[in-house]
Amino acid sequence: DQQVKQNSPSLSVQEGRISILNCDYTNSMFDYFLWYKKYPAEGPTFLISISSIKDKNEDGRFTVFLNKSAKHLSLHIVPSQPGDSAVYFCAARPYNQGGKLIFGQGTELSVKP
Amino acid sequence: GAVVSQHPSRVICKSGTSVKIECRSLDFQATTMFWYRQFPKQSLMLMATSNEGSKATYEQGVEKDKFLINHASLTLSTLTVTSAHPEDSSFYICSAGQGAGNTIYFGEGSWLTVV
């Protein structure tokens, strides 16, 4: 039972354009949502998070949007850079469970020069 | 710099032997750490929650006797894969939360290959 889903396994974007990575969840009992960037054989690197009581959080080129009614969140990267090419994981933190995270399957982003 | 460190980054062991992976929080104390595994091109799956000074909490389907977790200090958790088999070959990653905001940091990961 996949509680956090990233339905697009891959995404290809031209440099300078916007990258939009999507994530859906099925459980309402999450208090935080996080996005991580990951390279093969390395640990995930934290990018940005959003509290379940917010609908938007922005940090530089990264913006995360949360639509609770649709149980959907997205990560926008603008402008996209070739160095952004990596696998992006969406993760959700259950209420009152500290650092425990439930991960989506990941989306591989390729930004072409 | 890294705030959570894992060791070793890569290990190859023979089938039937045991291998230990360490996870350390650097410059902060972590009463709870988390162990994940990732198979190639798949998601990170939570295996267990490591609790300092008490027993680990395992996720459904994870064999506690096979994956021994010890959290003996506030900065170190260890995962021991006992009697390893080729199907245990995977990427193992730990994480720890820091601060009131509970920012979660991950280690670099450890590649285990069982031959």
3D architecture notes:
Chain A has strands at residues 4-5, 10-14, 19-25, 30-38, 45-51, 56-59, 62-67, 72-77, 86-94, 102-103, 107-112. With 113 residues, chain A is mostly beta strands. Chain A has one domain (4-112): Immunoglobulins (Immunoglobulin-like). In chain A, the strands form two sheets. In chain A, strands 2, 4, 5, 9, 10 and 11 form a six-stranded mixed sheet that branches. Chain B has 115 residues and is an all-beta fold. In chain B, 0% of the residues lie in helices and 55% in strands. Chain B is built from no helices and eleven strands. In chain B, the strands form two sheets. In chain B, strands 2, 4, 5, 6, 9, 10 and 11 form a seven-stranded mixed sheet that branches. Chain B has a four-stranded antiparallel sheet with strand order 1-3-8-7, with no helix packed on it. In chain B, a hairpin with a 4-residue loop joins β9 and β10 (103-106). At the A-B interface, β10 of A face β4, β5, β9 and β10 of B.
Give me the strand/helix succession of chain B.
EEEEEEEEEEE
Mean pLDDT over all positions of chain B: 91
The 3D shape of chain B can be described as: globular
Please provide the count of β strands of chain A. 11
Uncertain residue segments of chain B = none
Helices and strands of chain A, in order, run as EEEEEEEEEEE
Largest sheet of chain A: 6 strands, mixed
User: Which geometry of chain A do the CA atoms define?
Assistant: globular
Number of helices of chain A: 0
Compute the separation of the termini of chain B in Å. Answer: 33 Å
Largest interface comes to:
A-B, 19 and 27 residues
**Annotated CATH homologous superfamily of chain A:** Immunoglobulins
